[in-house]
Amino acid sequence: MNKNQIFIKSGTEYKKITKELLTASNLAELIGDRNKMVGIKPNLVSPSDPSEGGTTHPEIVAGILEYLKENGFQNMMLLEGSWVGDRTADAFEVCGYRRLCEDYDIKFYDTQKDKSYVKNCSGLELKICESVKKVDFLINVPVMKGHCQTKITCALKNMKGLIPNTEKRHFHAMGLHKPIAHLNTGIHQDFIVVDNICGDLDFEDGGNPVVMNRIWTAMDPVLVDACVCKQLHYEVEEVPYVKMAAELGVGCADISKADIQILGEVAEHHIAERRKVVDVADAVEEVESCSACYGYLIPALDMLKQEGLFEKLHEKICIGQGYRGKTGELGVGHCTRNFRCHVEGCPPTETQIYEYLKDYIARHS
Fold first, then answer.
1. How far apart (Å, rounded) are the C-alpha atoms in residues 160 and 118?
2. Smallest Cα–Cα separation from 215: which of 194, 240, 241, 246?
3. If DSSP codes are grouped into helix, strand and coil, which group holds residue 352?
4. Lower Cβ count inside 10 Å, N or C end of the chain?
5. pTM of the entire structure?
6. Which ranges carry the DUF362 domain (predicted)?
């Protein structure tokens, strides 16, 4: 497999398909030394079942583990940390990874509980979890999905699970795109297995899955994300961290250079161009908000829209760390606690936001 190749295969036998793709990609040859510690990094952003479109299907990771063991590799580990506001331990259980680790006798590192070290990532000093140092060859297993702040999330952004919660908050204060790009110069992902089974094309933590039943393998995370942009009808320039990562030398953002190999039958999918997030985002004034807080607000607004209540909300909703110590009318999250009306929580849940805003609309209509 060369740097510009992307292999894609469709089907519903996820473990089998994964092993076939790894064989076609010559993964064992890419890793080389059978004594290397192979780290596998899924996406367990929150405790939501993979069928909801937010987290990596454990069957894919099972296929990776079986392939590695069958090819003589014995040293494997899983490492991941959920987003701020949820516990990795809950996602580990709900998403089926506790059983997976028991079945394959694999150690799991919860990076939310990990110590960290500071690394210069191409001129930007960032905190990275200590467990990353244990890995000799990193396999990234992201979900192809949408994101209510960055439009898409896949290979590059999935590395955020390998930094401590304090740094995740700092990323949002820095505007997300720049630190995501720089982080990928500090953490090198050697191989990528994309879960394109049923990712939610609107929300990072799932809830609106779009079934596509495909799995990809690749080596270049920038090229993968550039292709995801195209799939979701965005120009690469609309997702700044992709182009920034290319400029930092992480990979290639020129989609014309992608050598896409379809294994088996071609599965065509129509992806709608308009996103739910676009329909409701204009009601929000966001400054440095964390993914979980913003990620729960947008679906809550969509619920109001489905009930015909959203149009009755005439006040802009403020959210984010940038509102700490400030006052205003309507806010979401602990950072807006000085506002006249606010939904308390760090983060408040989707249901809490929905119920509060529904009541607010009723009181102000």
1. 15
2. 194
3. helix
4. C
5. 0.87
6. 38-230
